[in-house]
Amino acid sequence: MKEIRIQDIGNIRIGNAENKEAATGCTVIICENGAPTGLDVRGGGPASRESELLKPTANADRIHAVLLSGGSAFGLDAAGGVMQYLEERDIGFDVGITKVPLVCESCLFDLGVGDSHVRPDKAMGYEACENAWKGNYTDGNAGAGTGATVGKLHGKDGCMKSGIGSYAVQIGELKVGAIVAVNALGDIYDWKNGKKVAGLLAEDQKMFLCTEDEVYKSYEVVENKFVANTTIGAVITNGKFNKTQLCKIAGMTHNGYARSIRPLHTTADGDSIYAMSVGEVAADLDMVGTLAAQVMSEAILRAVLSADSAYGLKAAKDIEAK
After folding, report:
1. C-alpha to C-alpha distance for 33 and 27, rounded to whole angstroms
2. What's this model's pTM, rounded to 2 decimal places?
3. Rounded to an integer, what distance in angstroms lies between the CA atom of residue 46 and that of residue 232?
């Protein structure tokens, strides 16, 4: 197994666009020829677009782009810019009159970090596509990770800066990679050794609290939780799979979330994972799903470790807490 760049999987273009001052952005993954894609949503509060296309019973056997975005449900407007960009380049499902780009999107909640009135819009989605052709993707405080934070049980005062991360590997001809914007309610752990690397901070901003322990302090019903959460990502492989199989791979990839984020999949999260097939390599589904979970865990770790402090929030590289 060797590490590769996620762009090296082939047949994809990935681009970031962001407004640093407003602390929001989006990241687009484009497959010009279309990619069979599955989706597994396990959080209780998702903001998504065209997710019905990815159900096994839906007719569409491939889509042309996945957009990961900030802005909560307001950010769904950014997909219009992706559609415009792709239509201008004759990319999409041919309906005779034109070609309709099939674009799926998931959004995370970053409205409380910067300017809540600035969200990814059509212009930013278009810009992300332009940047995808330039190959500008980078981990950290960029794209959908611009306003991402973690450890938010007690609100903004105790949370930390996160970002977007990626990781990919190759075994023989098979390539599997993941990209993820980590904006979790919970704490983040290094999947390899179990060490906490980011999350809920104590009042002194030097040590971690355990979000799970804080949750267990009361079982009183909370009607209005702090809901500025959601981790959204995609696993991409050159393995040949259909949409139904990819839904299963997306589900298995959630194991990578579970190794790295605690707690997870709450009613205050919209945790979602896409799985995209962009190649023709024959590969075992269970092997790829198992590997995808591992690759996703490492992408989550890199999203946190590549983030820089911003907006008055500390990042993992600033904390020596145990």
Report:
1. 19
2. 0.96
3. 9
